[in-house]
Amino acid sequence: MAEVDPLWTNRHPPKTQCSLPVRQTREGNSHYLWEWFNIDTEAIIKQALQTGGGPNVSDAYTINGLPGHLYNCSEKDTFKLQVKPGKTYLLRLINAALNDELFFSIADHMFTVVDADAVYVKPFTTDTLLIAPGQTTNVLLKTKSHYPNATFLMLARPYVTGQGTFDNSTTAGILEYELPSKSSSFGTTSLKKLPLFMPQLPALNDIFFATNFAKKLHSLATAQFPANVPQTVDRHFFFTVGLGTNPCPKNHTCQGPTNNTMFAASINNNSFAMPTTALLQTHFFRQSNNAILTTTFPTEPLIPFDYTGTPPNNTNVSNGTKLVVLPFNTSVELIMQDTSILGAESHPLHLHGFNFFVVGQGFGNYNPSKDPASFNLMDPVERNTVGVPVGGWVAIRFLADNPGVWFMHCHLESHSSWGLNMAWVVLDGKLPNQKLPPPPLDLPKC
Question: GO: which molecular function terms (predicted)?
């Protein structure tokens, strides 16, 4: 256990301008990891979409809204968690950041992971967590058996796989033990004089840690909490996910990755275009007239290529509002493959309306003749958001038993805004409880 290196904060240059409010520190078992922007985030993404370039990065990260004392203007804005010796605490970690996966650790303390995305997992211990935007993790924190005469930093900083700019800073909170009530040797000012210890977080691009952490997650798969993994598959899908470009509009100056281009993102080279009328609304009224939304979304790449090797010269994507239609109770297997177009990158993909089972993952190009043999169909983790490994693939299975129109998108806000989205249409079943209910009578008209 090593004390804080006084030069450590200098290796993370503090912000020169901040406008962070003074807030009261507070206890609580829910910990939100956020990004702080000094200007309106809507204005940031609007500017990025107009210029075709990447959005400005955040000004700070926060724990429960407080950036911590490693930023030069926020010494008073540090989250503090008070604990007692010999206790076990349940901490609920939520990554509510817009564009960054985050490492999280508390100095000289271990976590027991018991939950991921609100589903129990086989417990395992770790000193560091990795949480993607939109993901949640519940952990048990067992405190030391006696008063330690020290305080402990809790830190969060990004896991970085892309080639773009990012907020290379660290947010800090403090875990402190309540003073012994019967001891007269401790005063209210003595907490500030205690040694402060810091955790050793993984490197910013530690793919090895990220991979091993993901592999430790397994469902309980017990009689009380079964893992109802589809053992047979009705529909197979192969989606490439990654970045691309759109041509710059005429008489317009763009700041995209290459001359005269704008950043775009796509699934199977289709960049999702937001419709003017809600898809669920359209689907319900068409279905009531014995018509359904047609499926035009490519269920596999139209032009196969070496997805993780040398990228193709043409990086342009197609654009449109395209969907996949599934009959009720269809069992689905989906392979999501990262691409090296404009740089390989980890993509946290989130599916609305369903949980899914992560049955396999690997690096390089997915091999349909070899890789399924290693799939875990016994106790795979059940989630609603999963990271597509940088330069690799992930395989998920789910049962389409929830009628409606369900969005699937990258949980990096910039990628979603660039079009890394698609939608599944699940048709009604035969029974009354298997049908999409009508909209409420007071639903505002679009």
Answer: copper ion binding; hydroquinone:oxygen oxidoreductase activity
